[in-house]
Hints:
Layout (H helix, E strand, L loop, with lengths): L2 H12 L4 H13 L5 H7 L17 H12 L5 H11 L2 H6 L22 H13 L5 H14 L3 H11 L9 H11 L4 H11 L2 H17 L13 E5 L1 H7 L3 E6 L3 E7 L4 E5 L10 H10 L4 E10 L8 H8 L5 H7 L1 E12 L2 E2 L5 H11 L7 E4 L2 H13 L4 E5 L10 E8 L4 E12 L8 E11 L2 E8 L5 H11 L3 E5 L2 E4 L4 E6 L1 E4 L7 E4 L2 E5 L11 H9 L2
Parallel strand pairs: 1-10
Antiparallel strand pairs: 2-8, 2-9, 3-4, 3-5, 5-6, 6-7, 9-10, 11-12, 11-15, 11-16, 12-13, 14-15, 16-19, 17-18
Amino acid sequence: MEFAAFAERAAEIEATAADLEIVSLVRDLFADADDDLDTVARFVQGRVFPAHESTTLDVGPNLCYEAIARAAGHNVAADDVEDRVAGVGDVGDVAADYDFGGQQGLGAFAGDGPDGLTVGEVESELRALAAAAGSGSRDRKLDLLFGLFNRCSPPEARYLARIVLSEMRIGVGEGTVRDAVAEAFDVPVAAVERALQVTNDYGLVATVARDEGEAGLGDLNLEVGRPVQAMLAQAGTVADAIEAWETVAVETKYDGARVQVHYDGDEVALFSRNMEDVTDPLPEVVDFVDEHLSVPAILDGEVVAVDDDGEPLPFQEVLRRFRRKHDVAKAREDVEVRLWAFDCLHADGEDLLDAPLRDRHDRLSSILDARVATVATAADPDGIADIETRALEAGHEGIMLKDPDSTYSPGRRGKEWLKRKPDVETLDLVVTGAEWGEGRRAEFLGTFELSVRAGPDDFETIGKVATGITDEELAELTELLEPRIRVEDGKAVDLEPGVVFEVGYEEIQTSPTYSSGYALRFPRYLGVREDKDVADADTLERVERLADGS
């Protein structure tokens, strides 16, 4: 396909506002793309390479401006191009406003000559540009890019500049391409979507849909070494999970960086959430997988930084390792990282995307003999709260809530996985009672009665909190509150009001259980308000306003 024809179609798509009309135009473009279909399916989204490839052009705006200026003539400087882009707001429109084609020099007439630039030539030159590395690579990239612009008509220059900077701006997203492929080659949308999920390659899927139809799409599967998009979670509450599923799979949420592990039986490859190859910066994870994973597999997991005692460190420490390109051995000495795997997409030749979560986790546990994420099931808020408390005590970020029957959908952010939503509001509440713990916590006060102020010396109960408190904090709270015990009745104690807790919660609901007439849903201890006296604690009046939403 001539690149001019591609640019003409792109301009027509850009001028169209209606989504259905855009799909139809992209459909027709695909039908006419011939041998360049795979490239066109990427270019129309502003992509040069398949989404699963870690290859990048490594061309920033400044280099692009310099190439445009060089192709535009001696009287144009890169700063001039930059200034015009700042005013116009689109590098494509600025590139289209110059008269290219008259400049001489290295790269000026690459390919078949100054006329007839094709989609295939553009892709070939851009791949050569991406491959330029080492000393002199910037000049090589500039020459190649200048050569392309020098052969462009104004419409071609508009879309070349946008493709180079991944700013296509014609209203074509992944869903549009999916639907256009289905219409162009008369295959079900669901078959295209599944093929995209397992390959992460729009060009490949479009070509297979055209050449082999639905059957060919069905033959596409996960491939070890080719990353796919990660399944994502959305924010939700414990109440959401309990209402949606009969039982809830509660999984430790690690404060680390997402990683997809690919092991073919000999080699290990690691990919970030954005599908960048991060194998080299994480040699200890590679060693761990090589030692502990028994079969070829694709795993989903989290890489966590740990201190000398194996305790988790903040997320920022992980980023130090992910970004490291040089002196990795020294970085490894400074910050150790560990993999915690929580899902299995493929094992020993078998794709597991359609298997329920509980089965995928069982398979994961059977092939990986260490550091498999802890998962427990619960059907009530108290059970979930207990699991969350243990996760927090271990130094982790919290918990994930998942449907045990959920399949794995790459790239999808659905309701099957929930990140426990942060508490939407906090209250400063007076501690008026407590209960002694059990087992290893028997010597600590472990459940705390919370009250609001209803008058100068009048307190009304609104709930109890036991979640979000570590053993160390329990010891400190017991030392703080024990002198205030007025009456003990078995495990329950009555406390003289004097300590204020900051407490988060999901919502306030009316309840006959507590004397205030209200109860906090899923309260969570956040800390002691040492800066507040009892007289500064929240009032029943404020609780009533919050409950009414006013």
